[in-house]
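Researcher: Next entry in the queue.
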Amino acid sequence: MEEPPTLNSRPKQGSQALLPEIGVHTDGHHWLRGRKGSMSLLPDLPKANERKCQTCEKVQARGRSAPASRKQPTEIKARLRQQDARSQDARSQAKVTQAEEPAPQLMQAGNRKGSMSLLPEPEAPKLPQQGVQAPKLPQQAQVSLASARARHVAEPKFIRTARSRSSSRSLPRRREVAERQEEVSLQEAASIALHQASQEPPMLNSRPKQGSQSLLPDLGEAVAPPWPDKIEEEVQKASKLSLADWTEDKNRKEGHHTPTSGTQTPKTKAVSDANSDSGPDCMERGFSLSILDSLLRDHLEREDKGSSEATNQVPKPVVVVSSEVNPWSKTGGLGMVAGSYGYEFAMRGHRTMVVSPRYAEYDDAEQIGCAKVWLDGGEHEVQFFHLYQDLGDGNGTDYIFVGHDCFSREGLYCDPKDGKEYPDNLFRFSLLTVAALEAPLVLNIRGSTFGQDVLFIANDWQTGLLPVYHLYKYRLNDTYKNSRCVFVIHNIRSQGKYRLSKFPIDSYLGLPPEAIEFLQGEDRSLGNDCMNLLSAACLACDKVLTVSQDYAAEILNLKSGSGLNGILQQNGPNRMAGIINSIADDWNPRTDPHIPANYTRSNFDEGKAACKRELQKALGLHQDSGVALLGFSGRLCYQKWVPLITEILPWLLTDEPSGVLGRIQVILMGKGDDAFASHLSNAEKSHLGKVCGYVGFDPKVEHRLLAGCDFLLMPSRLPQMYAQAYGTVPIVHETEGFKASIVGLVDEQKDRETATGFQFCGFDVNCLKERMYQALEVYHKKRDLFKQIQINGLETNDNWTEVVSDANSEAGPENISMERVFSLSALDSLLQDPEGKAELRHQLELDELEDKRPKYTSHHLSKPVVVVSSEVNPWSKTGGLAMVAGSYGYEFAMRGHRTMVVSPRYGAYDGAHYVGYAKIWLDGREHEVQFFHLYQDLGDGNGTDYIFVGHDCFSRGGLYCDPNTGKEFPDNLYRFSLLTVAALEAPLVLNIRGSTFGQDVLFIANDWQTGLLPIYHLYKYRRNNTYKNSRCVFVIHNIGYQGKYRLSKFPIDGYLGLPPEAIQFLQGEDLNLGDDCMNLLSAACLASDRVLTVSPNYAVEIQSPEGGQGLHGILQEKGRQHRMAGILNGIADEWNPKTDPHIPVNYSIRTFEEGKAACKKELQRSLGLQEDPQAALLGFCGRLCYQKGVHLITEIIPWLLQNESSGVLGRVQIILMGKGDDLYANQLSNAENRNRGRVCGYVGFDPKVEHRMLAGCDFLLMPSQYEPCGLPQMYAQAYGTVPIVHETGGLKDSVSGLWDEERDRETATGFLFCGFDENMLMERMYQALEVFHKKKDLFKQIQINGLRKNYYWPQAIDEYERHLDWTLDGDAAVS
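Model: Structure for this entry, 1375 residues:
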């Protein structure tokens, strides 16, 4: 079991020998040499410790890389220019030699004819020579260049942007991005993209037209190139462009420089001619396929009529690097893409290598070498496993799988049991990237290495470091001088963001400090401390490709660019293109072995009818050939619109006079979010015989679904093309790849011969209904038109797929027997084939139960858990600690652990019976404590044993303080020492339900009151051969309370009964007590086996001097030992507006507007506030103390209530509830007295009132100075109440702020302010109230985002289980 990463550990800096000398293992495996271009040191680049800049020295002192100076990129490009000049001379000489040799024979691949390019090779770009005057710029360009230089000089080093949280970086390319974003509007960006697309392929935003001519010039008969040729063209462009000319190329596009007019190269002229004839939309639609699965084509035939020339260029080796590759590893389209690359480039004659992690032992993959990679301050050995796929005719693909322990896990990127990303993913994929760069150099494959002259194709953020390593570690050291990098964006939303302070560029990644130019990104949460792998790749690579033309255009704008639109706009058409995805050969109804009846265009009516009949029979649907059968197959998540589909089901199934609705059946298949899975289950239960909801996924079922359905609803980018291939009509949202792959039926006459489906605009259920009604009307009343749409789709597929493999054509359809099944497991029969390889589908999760099925299963479920806490809900409670302890008792028992919770008996608790006693030595004598037991039966054999420790010292009015004076009890050390030792005795001496818990247990101690438990556990038990195999986990809920006492007053031996050497743990530091300080919290951190905190951000904060309260050094050391982590607390199931018995009206996400309005009205009435539904109702519920920021709220009340012309302030009401400091209690009372009907100040606390406040308020205020976790902000989101919080601790982890209204619209759940100051709070309050009063749609979306969040305990307990496993698998911290 792998340990979690260190929270704030940093690798050592200044290591000299990053790699050993050259050598070969005795078994023949390679290991890296200290050559230039390897992962060794870069002697020619400045070291981090040689930098003299004051700013850099300060940054380096903090352990992170300094920003690069302005001159460095220029120096790098100058060096590259010299290299490229030398390379150009070598290439020119090679070309002369090559011209004298006979042209090579054209390669034959199956029935494919001709060369791979109809056009001769373009000349390489010429570099300006020394002594030759540069071409004179046109006047307009000179003015642009002069103004640009003026701006460059005039601007300060750091440019502040309006309302920005941090300064913009001074890096040159980042400045250009910022300038471009400021100067170019979204409309102008789209126009630029369209204009550039019309001037030079590939087209970024053009939709292919039917029947248009080829891009090629008149070379006999015009032939549209198969799309892999389009990729060849992009590859050629990337390989020819000089990286040193990058800036020069960008300046040309921006008007700063124009090339010398002269004769065009043949290829440039050809493209120009074609564009001048046909414009940008001149590509045949049938060939607008993609990098994805069109690359899986076996044989693509292309006539080369009229062409007597063929390229004499030897294809460049291609190295594809991907985090997954089909069929060995796959989570989605990326795996299919990488597998397609490996096949298609090899079939085109390239020597092809595909590099991917070795997640498991793959058959026939043999180890052929190993390498040592420097990363995270040390060397790590990776192994290379090789598998050769022979494709015939001398073509084949070399698959290289990189082996390392970090890849050997169940999931590729996330733990499959809880869905959370692995914390060491940066380490894992950095290893992959460097190994991929080494493989072509060191691996002798089939007689030779791939060598340096290769083209890399990196995919998505996981390989985003490849272009950066390629530049700094290799090209700048005369390795891979002529190689190029192409980077493919499959999903721009996943960018790979990490903290630069946690993963320094130099000491962790082994890159020089100037690499920050590429790696430093922007993020609202991380600020300038953000490393962004996707943006780094876009900046450093030679060409960026995306998976469709429309997607390429969309990500250029601010809304869809996910913060990278400025960077992508810089690339333009020369260095950016979109290529529409395609489908694999096995999606062919003529040969598909998974469907009951095969069919072609000529007999698709009969074939689809047979498939539909068998599908209905197997799924328990009414066998009616006249109904419209609608299917959905995809991931169950909000992005796939699952809630919209289930929402319109009643409307679809309602009979109405027109005959359009009613005669419908629906099949929904997928897996993902539990909430959406329940939608499928409920839909089937409500409409038996008309709806089948299947939670699960099997590719064979998807084949049968597409063959049998009439319509496919809102699929992802590939299924809509599968659907057309099977004559199934897609109904999709008009966005991204859909627009390029589906022709919508807009005008029934004009689009009759071209339409392949239906598209709707707008992320709205009404837009979907409108298009659904049109589609069903065509199906039921215009059968000829519906048939023509099916034929159009089938014909499009014929263009895509020429020939399928012989194996598929010989296999024929499977003889599937489909039995009629009437149950929620209806699709089980479809998941079985004659060979028995298909798996039965998973049982539907019953989401209506409160207990959620655990996603992570501990391998120590047999280990008893003993929770020790000074309070436990519902018996004793002062704050969040009691809630957490009560949740521990419930959740660990529900997971299968035998669970005990030990807490003081502050009163006579109903149902708790005396079960025994123990005598404890303390303060020089023995003291007897009694044990009272209460068993809570949770069903299914699970339950929790609550043990209450009885003693006179606990029987008082308060838990920790005298309720009359508010002062701490003077004997608290005595009281909680008794509790601690009693908790250690209870598992040994109490016979509970037939047996004791025994010694082999795991203790979870909480806060300073139980801080002595790890000390007693070590000195009194483990060192006396008791609890030898047990472990202690200590949880910090609030580091501000540490339990400090005078050692001289409470001697370790005479009072606590511990040996003198225990002082090494117990002695702390304090300004008042000095060395005479005993610190229980620091002792627990030192002696426990693992320290946990109640949120990830709080775990980071308390390791800093500002947040560590003097313990940051201890906690940093714990982090370096991999024994420290933060886990966000969960909330109890009772906090659910659908079932809450304390609120006037229950509501769900679909009815929250009406429900909250009713709750708000009742709350206003009951508290004496004016019943105004339009007033913004603000609530605060918490302890009345400085730390909770109560004074900030009371100070701004007059400002909030004042009327002003904008209409933002004034219409506000405030409810303040809490108890604590008298000063703040008086402030609440005074605020209410001065503002009757608008302010309610309630000094006290009632949990029922808290529930009603969260249901009725519009906003919840939590301006806490610090908040380790915080629960109310999570309650608020569950009730659709928007939190306004200080950006600290768990508040930062659990509230997504609205920083940018466009970008954060779909993710924001509240408002965060920085700085514990009333002015910062006022600024964010004004924004929130402005959104509430003037942007109702945005406010509603924020509420919906919060309602969708899942902060319940099953999510948190998964993390606890994982850390408990790590604790139990490891050695004890102290022996």
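Model: Residues 22 and 33 are 4 Å apart (CA to CA).
Researcher: Noted, moving on.
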